[in-house]
Known about the structure:
439 residues; Rossmann fold; 3 domains; six-stranded parallel β-sheet; 14 strands; 44% helix
Amino acid sequence: MKIAVVGTGYVGLVTGTCFSEMGVHVTCVDVDQNKIDALNQGIIPIYEPGLETLVHKNVKSGRLHFTNSLENVLNEVDIVFSAVGTPPDEDGSADLKYVLEVARTIGRNLKKYIVVVTKSTVPVGTAQKVKAVIQEELQRREVDVQFDVASNPEFLKEGNAVKDFMSPDRVVVGVESERARKLMARLYKPFMIMSDRLIFTDIPSAEMIKYAANSMLATRISFMNDIANLCELVGADVNMVRKGIGSDTRIGKKFLYAGCGYGGSCFPKDVKALIKTAADLGYPMRVLQAVEEVNNDQKVVLYRKIVNYYGSEEALKGKTVGMWGLAFKPETDDMREAPSLVLIDLLLKAGAHVKVYDPVAMDECRRRIGDKVTYCKDMYETADGADALMLVTEWKELRMPNIDTLLHRMRGRLILDGRNILDGEELRLAGFEYHCIGK
Length: 439
């Protein structure tokens, strides 16, 4: 089987590479010639554990190719995945211009039956818009070519995406014809050898499943952050609360960790998009509106704690604050909607000097904000002369710092743990002022 994947961003590159690993002949397409040139030279544009090895392996095997021309491969493939970006507009709605441009290219060049699959996270009704655009272009050409559209939302966790794709807990495919269903079932068959986790639905339901899933996970995070803030006021420990409610099988243990807010490419964007979709239909998503409000507020919690410690925002002027972690989560260099960006902006506006360290996201931070902060080679250089340290991303290497080294290298004694991963008792016994979330 031959397929094309349009878009070599996070979703597209992982999708194309993993399909090629299962024996499918894949051509990844991107209009960015520089990105295609880099991929053809073995340079991977994103950080994702295990991905680079698979790309090199499958390029060498001849199953994975990169090009900037969909037109040249369109009529050689059975399926085209659209995995282009859907950035949020100012009103929170998903911008579909790239998705619809792919559809126009297909309609202008299609000569044989294919299935056009939306892999990007798109609002309900997008597949029908894609279908209408393709049909419009075919009519303009005065040709009658059969095709189907389908929805196949991704459920990849950054930092674990390759494993998620190769061993999915479910694969959701929305179709409207038996021919498309059979073709998609054939494509995913190698992933279903051990157990069949392939779920076929109608197309609107498949589109809604993605948004509903991410919104539910975001809801759990914001709920626990709200509970954590209340725990601090009443003297409870959110970690004990988490264990207590997580042991209830109806609730479960996942996504119940309090912290300094969620970020990334999915949760913020998808929550906004679902709220906007509902608003356009005259229905207010009151729970999700609260989820978003709580999360935006949670990204400021560590800043409030440092202001409270020093007594005022004015007292931060001239202080040096070290920041451990920049990415929105571990095992990725993605800083989209990251709490670190909010904290850096607030600290700089208050006149503080900010020193930062992240195992993989330093270049991404420099690309986003330039030299507004000091970039450090390791976690301990970040502590040199620091009045306070903020832990913002729960990288494993940050979990057990050498306390004697921190005592020697820090000027102050304030440590703010935004992910509740440090040993607060040990730090306090050593003389640090330790604050975390929900205690």
